[in-house]
Every structure is written in structure tokens, then in C-alpha cells.
């Protein structure tokens, strides 16, 4: 294994590329940043202030809109950054659920090969190989990579996957850039995470052997995701033009889900496997934005005109349920796979076009302003087999307004309001109308806060109020609107260099989630949404004294606050802290630097139950030790 990393005969030492990526040392704040192999922060792509920007459609590539259906591969993506609160003030047309912005690698100045080998104590192994190289000087460059994975899971699943992609940067002139890209992710033999539904107001007994798979060998999934696109940017004087056209495809050729129903306090339940026909989710989307930028003394002005559009088609079908033996959730009972006769599938189609104008202004030493207005035309057609076509339309005006004021040289305050039109989560597996997608939701957000520079540390504290229609299961397990959900809270971030050799990321969010509506008023459901944690605290330290010569020690403590496991709010899941520790050691192998990385997650083997929004329960991963060897080889 060590020889594989040293077998490339290039003379120069490695430079800071994939091998040196360190989230704790490179994060600008504590709100969230992710790289291919690690992440840090309060939020991530599927959870900002208790909501998912992926489900809401608030994803960007290099700041441009994409209607993402398949995950973006880190073989072509360098990082993802969460933009929320004041960190979103430089984005035209921000969104109430926050923005997950994916960044592509910069153009390389020289050939860099980045091999990486990974292994973990669950028995999982993987190999990744990335290439970044100029092709024609500074005019054309390439980024490419592939990875193969045996992803043994914490619950005993053994999926296999492949990830690959390629992107080019073409700069025909210094002020013009064109970036085409393509990526493919394939997964097969993927067992679904078992989900447990209890028969009363309690949680199941603890699963002692968390790594033992108790489902059926044939209850596996096969899927592939493809993302293709092109980004083009150019600048002429005060004017700039940016555009992106993307096609995202997620196809599931084999779809099986394992649920345990009516689990009692002794851990006895009924194993149910849901089998669904092949499904396909495709979207062509993009954005064109024209910007004029000019300075007026200490004031900088930007005017934007933008058009965004998407054409989304989904095809899915009803699942067949296979009820197997009733037994302990800790015991496996293999059974033969039955044959399935799936019914006709349901197509739905969304077309949306949004036009908008925006202004960004900055006055040095005084403050900034971001104001935008958009008009969107949303149409959705659902054609259930044997039923009338369901049509929904909406044409709202959307407004965003945010301003900041510099009250002192290193202190600023901000406030803002944002309106949005977002997609809702699809109906969960246990729903009668599984996979159904409700119409788009009108959402709104108000937030305010303060940001301060404390030497080499950056601090921010903000308050927010986000409101959306609330969709969940009713008494008949039909997924529909039950009222309105409001997430009100306070969030804070402290980041930077605490000392010359200690990088600090500290963040906290305290959330007051609340549901209102007729079913809350009559006592059918409680006031707290299911599965939404009321707090999260993250503290990460990276210690790297100069005398360690590039080696470092890191620790991350995360505390997940309590949440409710049922709509009646009768079962509360307690908070649980988890601790991760790791080391990076820079060693010399064949006269080049190699980074050896060891990390232990869930150091104290903390156990907790986690509830999803449909009252399904899963258990957390146990202690896990991860090891990797990586290097960057310059040509």
C-alpha cells in the first residue's frame, strides 16, 4: 500500500492539494464547510436551521442555480460551503432555507496527481485517484478523478460504489472562462438502513450489536447519478455575464426498503420489505445572470438581472409490501425473495421560470445593502394511473432585503427579510402516497445579528425566524399539509486562529421549532415537529505547532439536542454528545511527503436513537476508526 503511493516518478514534492485539505483550518466560519473526506460546522447540505436546502432546491454551483437530483461527485467538486445569515449578503437572490454552494477546483498551474487509500474498522476500504493538470498553458486545464468503494456500513450493510468525473477549464481570453463537467456515481448491493416504528409511546430497546445486519440479502438497491453541465463567465469593462446549464439524473433500477413495524418494548416487531418499481428523476436547469459593477469613491455598486429555469420530470410507482416473520429486531431470519408485479408508474412534471433584478451596494466603513425582487412562474402536472391529472400553479413575487451597518471598525450589525418558493420533501416510505411530491411551498425568513472581528478570530451571532407550510403523515398515513411550521432560533459562530498553532471552530444553534394548525389545536398532534433537534453545539480544534513540521492533532465535540420521536410529542429523545479525535502525520516516503491520517469518530461509543420526520427511528453509528494515506505528486 505504501509503495502504491510512492510509485510515481515525479521529482517535485507535493503541494497543498487534496492531501492537505483540512476543514477546521480552512473554514471561514462555523456554519459549515465540506471537502471530499471531511467536514466541520453547524450545518451541512441536508440541514440548515432544521430544513434541507437540497430538498428545497437551494443549491448552487459556483453561485449559479442548479436543480440537483443526483449528488454532486467530489471527484469534480472541491468543496461545499453553507451560506446563511450575513454570509449570504453577497449572494444575489438568497433563499430562506439557506444556500449550499458547491465550488469546483481552481485551474492548476502544474500537473498534480493525488492518490488516496482509505480503510475503516467496519471493514470498509476505498481507493481514490485525482488528477489536476494544465493542457495548454494557462488556457486549458483538466480536473479528473475516480474512486472505488466497499462501503461497509455501521448497521452491517455492504454496498459497493464507484465515483468518477471530469471537468475542463478553457480560458480563451483572460476575462473569459468556460467550464464543462461530467460526473457519474453508481451504487449497487446497497442495503437500506433499517427503520423502526414502535407500537406505543416508547423507543425500542438498545440494539447491542449495531454492526450486524438483520434484514434480507435481497433487500438491496441499485442506483446511478449523473451530473452534466457547463458554466461560462466573461467580463467586459463594468459588465459581466455568467451562465450555467445543468442536467442532473438520478435513476433507481432496484428499490427495496426495510421497515420494522409495531415494535414493542421488548424489541419484537414485524419485518416489512417494500419493493418499488424502477424510478427516475431528471432535471434540466440553469441560470443566466448579467451584472454591472462600478465604483463611486468609497462605494461599490452591483446591479444584477437574472433568469433561472428548470424542467423536471419524475417517474415513480407504488411499492408492494412483503410482511415477513415477527421476531426480535436483533435476530435475522432469511427468507426467499417473492416475485413482484408492479402497477403502472406515476409521472409528474415541473416547469418553473424565474426572472429577477437585484442590487448590491457596499460603502466602505459604513455598511452594505442587498435587495432583490423576482417573479416566478411555477407549474406542476401529476398524472396518477387511472385518475385525473392533478395540476398546480403559482406565480408569486419574491422579495429579499438585507442590510448591514458598520457601527465600529470591527463591528457590524445586519438584518434582513427573504421570501421564497421551494420544493417540499417527498412522501416517506411508510406513507400511503409514497414518493408523492407536494406543490411548491411559499416560505419566508426574517433574521438579524451582529458580526465582530476579534484579532484573528471572527465572531457572529444571529437570530432567525423561518416559516413554511408543514407536511407530514395524517392518521391514515397520507402525506399532506397539516399546518405551518416555524423555526425560530439563535445561532453563533467563532472561528479563526486562537493561537499561532491552534485553529478554532466553535458554533451553536438553539432552535425553537413549532407547528401550528387545526390538528395542533384539536390535540391530534403536538406543537413540536418530529425529529427536529432543538440545539446543536460544535467545537473543533486543530493543533499544529511549527515544530511538528506539518503534522497536527484535532478534536471535534458535537452535541445534538433533544427532539421528539412522535407527532403527539409523547416520546422525547435526549441529547447526546459525541467526540471525534484524529491525527495527521507528515512522513517522507520515496523522497516525497505523504499524509497519514487516523481519526476516531464517536470515541466513547455513544448510543442514541434518531427520529425522522415520519416517526421512523434509526440508531447512531458506533465507534469507528478511519485510516488513510494520501499524497500530492507534482509533475
UniProtKB/TrEMBL annotation:
Q: Which InterPro entries match?
A: Beta-barrel_TonB, Beta-barrel_TonB_sf, TonB-dep_rcpt-like
Q: By its UniProt entry, which Pfam families does this protein fall under?
A: TonB_dep_Rec_b-barrel (PF00593)
Q: What is the name attached to this protein's record?
A: TonB-dependent receptor-like beta-barrel domain-containing protein
- What is the predominant subcellular site recorded for this chain? membrane
Domain TonB-dependent receptor-like beta-barrel span(s) in chain numbering:
205-603
Q: How does it sit in the membrane?
A: Multi-pass membrane protein
The domain of life for this entry's organism is Bacteria
Give GO MF terms, alphabetically.
siderophore uptake transmembrane transporter activity
Subcellular localization, as worded in the UniProt entry:
Cell outer membrane
Output a single Gene Ontology CC term carried by this record. cell outer membrane
Q: Which UniProt keywords apply?
A: Cell outer membrane, Ion transport, Iron, Iron transport, Membrane, Signal, TonB box, Transmembrane, Transmembrane beta strand, Transport
Amino acid at each position: 500500500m505504501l509503495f502504491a503511493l510512492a510509485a510515481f516518478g515525479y521529482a517535485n514534492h507535493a503541494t497543498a492539494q487534496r492531501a492537505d485539505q483540512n476543514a477546521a483550518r480552512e473554514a471561514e466560519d462555523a456554519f459549515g464547510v465540506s471537502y471530499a473526506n471531511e467536514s466541520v460546522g453547524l450545518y451541512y447540505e441536508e440541514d440548515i436551521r432544521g430544513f434541507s436546502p437540497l430538498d428545497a432546491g437551494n443549491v448552487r454551483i459556483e453561485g449559479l442555480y442548479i436543480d440537483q437530483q443526483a449528488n454532486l461527485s467530489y471527484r469534480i467538486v472541491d468543496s461545499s460551503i453553507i451560506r446563511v445569515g450575513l454570509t449570504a449578503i453577497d449572494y444575489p437572490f438568497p433563499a430562506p432555507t439557506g444556500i449550499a454552494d458547491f465550488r469546483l477546483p481552481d485551474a492548476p498551474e502544474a500537473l498534480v496527481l493525488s492518490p488516496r487509500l482509505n480503510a475503516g474498522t467496519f471493514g470498509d476500504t476505498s481507493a481514490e485517484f485525482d488528477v489536476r493538470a494544465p493542457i495548454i498553458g494557462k488556457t486549458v486545464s483538466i480536473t479528473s478523478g475516480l474512486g472505488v468503494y466497499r462501503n461497509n456500513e455501521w448497521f452491517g450493510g455492504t454496498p459497493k460504489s464507484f465515483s468518477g468525473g471530469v471537468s475542463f477549464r478553457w480560458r480563451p481570453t483572460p476575462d473569459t472562462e468556460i467550464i464543462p463537467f461530467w460526473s457519474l456515481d453508481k451504487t449497487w448491493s446497497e442495503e437500506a438502513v433499517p427503520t423502526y416504528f414502535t407500537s406505543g409511546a416508547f423507543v425500542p430497546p438498545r440494539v447491542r450489536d449495531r454492526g450486524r445486519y438483520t434484514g434480507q440479502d435481497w433487500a438491496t438497491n441499485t442506483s446511478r447519478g449523473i451530473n452534466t453541465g457547463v458554466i461560462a463567465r466573461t467580463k467586459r469593462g463594468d459588465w459581466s455575464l455568467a451562465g450555467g446549464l445543468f442536467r442532473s439524473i438520478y435513476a433507481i433500477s432496484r428499490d427495496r426498503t426495510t421497515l420494522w413495524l409495531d415494535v414493542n418494548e421488548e424489541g419484537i416487531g414485524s419485518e416489512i420489505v417494500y419493493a418499488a418499481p424502477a424510478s427516475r428523476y431528471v432535471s434540466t436547469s440553469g441560470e443566466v445572470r448579467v451584472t454591472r459593477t462600478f465604483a463611486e469613491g468609497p462605494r461599490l455598486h452591483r446591479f444584477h438581472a437574472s433568469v433561472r429555469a428548470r424542467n423536471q420530470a419524475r417517474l415513480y410507482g407504488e411499492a408492494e409490501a412483503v410482511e415477513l416473520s415477527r421476531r426480535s429486531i436483533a435476530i435475522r431470519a432469511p427468507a426467499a425473495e417473492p416475485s413482484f408485479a408492479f402497477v403502472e408508474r406515476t409521472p409528474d412534471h415541473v416547469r418553473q421560470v424565474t426572472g429577477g433584478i437585484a442590487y448590491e451596494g457596499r460603502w466602505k466603513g459604513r455598511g452594505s445593502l442587498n435587495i432583490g425582487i423576482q417573479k416566478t412562474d411555477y407549474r406542476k402536472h401529476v398524472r396518477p394511473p387511472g385518475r385525473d391529472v392533478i395540476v398546480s400553479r403559482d406565480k408569486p413575487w419574491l422579495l429579499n432585503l438585507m442590510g448591514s451597518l458598520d457601527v465600529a471598525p470591527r463591528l457590524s450589525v445586519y438584518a434582513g427579510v427573504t421570501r421564497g418558493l421551494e420544493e417540499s420533501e417527498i412522501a416517506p416510505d411508510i406513507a400511503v402516497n409514497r414518493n408523492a411530491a407536494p406543490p411548491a411551498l411559499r416560505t419566508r425568513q426574517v433574521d438579524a445579528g451582529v458580526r465582530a472581528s476579534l484579532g484573528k478570530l471572527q465572531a457572529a451571532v444571529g437570530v432567525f425566524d423561518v416559516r413554511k407550510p408543514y407536511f407530514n403523515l395524517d392518521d391514515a398515513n397520507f402525506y399532506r399539509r397539516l399546518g405551518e411550521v416555524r423555526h425560530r432560533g439563535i445561532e453563533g459562530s467563532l472561528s479563526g486562529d486562537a493561537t499561532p498553532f491552534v485553529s478554532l471552530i466553535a458554533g451553536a444553534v438553539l432552535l425553537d421549532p413549532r407547528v401550528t394548525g387545526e390538528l395542533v389545536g384539536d390535540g391530534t398532534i403536538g406543537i413540536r415537529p418530529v425529529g427536529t433537534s432543538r440545539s446543536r453545539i460544535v467545537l473543533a480544534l486543530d493543533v499544529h505547532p511549527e515544530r511538528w513540521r506539518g503534522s497536527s492533532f484535532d478534536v471535534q465535540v458535537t452535541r445534538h439536542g433533544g427532539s421528539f420521536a412522535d407527532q403527539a410529542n409523547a416520546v422525547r429523545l435526549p441529547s447526546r454528545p459525541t467526540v471525534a479525535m484524529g491525527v495527521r502525520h507528515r512522513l517522507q516516503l520515496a523522497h516525497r511527503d505523504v499524509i497519514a491520517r487516523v481519526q476516531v469518530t464517536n470515541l466513547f461509543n455513544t448510543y442514541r436513537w434518531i427520529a425522522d420526520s415520519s416517526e421512523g427511528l434509526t440508531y447512531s453509528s458506533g465507534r469507528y476508526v478511519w485510516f488513510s494515506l494520501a499524497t500530492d505528486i507534482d509533475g
